[in-house]
UniProtKB/TrEMBL annotation:
Gene3D superfamilies (alphabetical): Immunoglobulins
GO terms of molecular function: transmembrane signaling receptor activity
Organism (species): Caloenas nicobarica (Nicobar pigeon)
GO biological process: cell surface receptor signaling pathway; positive thymic T cell selection
Subcellular localization, as worded in the UniProt entry: Cell membrane
Region (Disordered): 106-141
Lineage summary: Eukaryota, Metazoa, Chordata, Craniata, Vertebrata
Keyword Signal: yes
Keywords: Cell membrane, Immunity, Immunoglobulin domain, Membrane, Receptor, Signal, Transmembrane, Transmembrane helix
Protein name: T-cell surface glycoprotein CD3 epsilon chain
InterPro entries: CD3_esu/gsu/dsu, Ig-like_fold, Phos_immunorcpt_sig_ITAM
Length: 153
C-alpha cells in the first residue's frame, strides 16, 4: 500500500496506508507530530524535503516527501490546458494565413521604393557628373590654371 498525499496551496495532507484502528505514531523530520489519526495535515509547508514515517505497533511505513507548494498557485485540469493550447494554435494559424494572403497580394504591385523606375526594362544610366576639380581646360578659363607650369624632370 502507498501513502496518499494531497496538496492544496501550502497545506499538505498525508494519509497513512495503515487501515487498522488505533493510535498511529507519526515521525516527520523537522516537526513534532501531534496527531494520532490516519491523516496528518502539515500547514504552511515550506517545500523542504522531509522523511515521513507512520507506524502502528510492529507495522511501519516510510516515505520521502519532496513537494513544491505555493500560496498563489492555481490548478488546471487537463481539459482547460487542452483548450488553452488549442486556442493558441488556432490564433497562430489564423495570423499566419492573414499574413500570407496580404503578402501574396503585394507581389503583383510595383513598389515605389525602387526609385520610381520601371522594373520591366532596364534603362541605361547617364554618364557620371564630372568632378569639378578635374574638369578639362576650356577656352576662356585659362587664367585659373595660369599659375601652373610644367616641371622639368
Amino acid at each position: 500500500k502507498e501513502f496518499l498525499v494531497e496538496i492544496s496551496g501550502t497545506t499538505v495532507t498525508i494519509t497513512c496506508p495503515l487501515t487498522e484502528e488505533g493510535n498511529i505514531v507519526w515521525e516527520i523530520t523537522g516537526m513534532k507530530p501531534t496527531s494520532q489519526a490516519r491523516k496528518y495535515v502539515i500547514e504552511n509547508h515550506d517545500s523542504s524535503p522531509t522523511s515521513v514515517n507512520c507506524s502502528l505497533g510492529a507495522k511501519k511505513h516510510e516515505m520521502y516527501l519532496n513537494v513544491r507548494v505555493c500560496a498563489n498557485c492555481q490548478e488546471l485540469d487537463a481539459l482547460a490546458v487542452t483548450g488553452i493550447v488549442t486556442a493558441d494554435l488556432l490564433i497562430t494559424f489564423g495570423v499566419l494565413i492573414l499574413v500570407y494572403y496580404f503578402s501574396k497580394d503585394r507581389k503583383g504591385r510595383p513598389s515605389a521604393s525602387a526609385g520610381g523606375r520601371p522594373r520591366g526594362q532596364k534603362m541605361q544610366r547617364p554618364p557620371p557628373v564630372p568632378n569639378p576639380d578635374y574638369e578639362p581646360i576650356r577656352k576662356g578659363q585659362r587664367e585659373v590654371y595660369a599659375g601652373l607650369e610644367p616641371r622639368g624632370f
